[in-house]
Structures are given as structure tokens and as C-alpha cells.
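User:
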Amino acid sequence: MAEPVQARRLSEHEDRRLLHYVRRGWQGTIRMRQAMIILASSSRTPAPSIV
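Assistant: Predicted structure:
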């Protein structure tokens, strides 16, 4: 069985930028949802719990 895929640890700048997208709903819903997924994955949340 393959290992689950997870995002790498984010830099402080990347983390702040993604949080900004999520909080402001910036640049549409798709960008906001992508940011939420990346943030969850980088904090080691299992994939089934994210979606």
C-alpha cells in the first residue's frame, strides 16, 4: 500500500498568504478551497478528513 501524500511544511510567509486567502475569500472560491486543503495537509491532517 502506498504512503499517503502530504504537503511539505510551509514557510511562515506561505502560511500567512494561504490564511489570508481563506479569511478573505480572496480571488474566488476555488482559490480559497485550495488554500484550505494545502493548509490542512501541511498540518498533517489525513486526506479523508480534509475532503
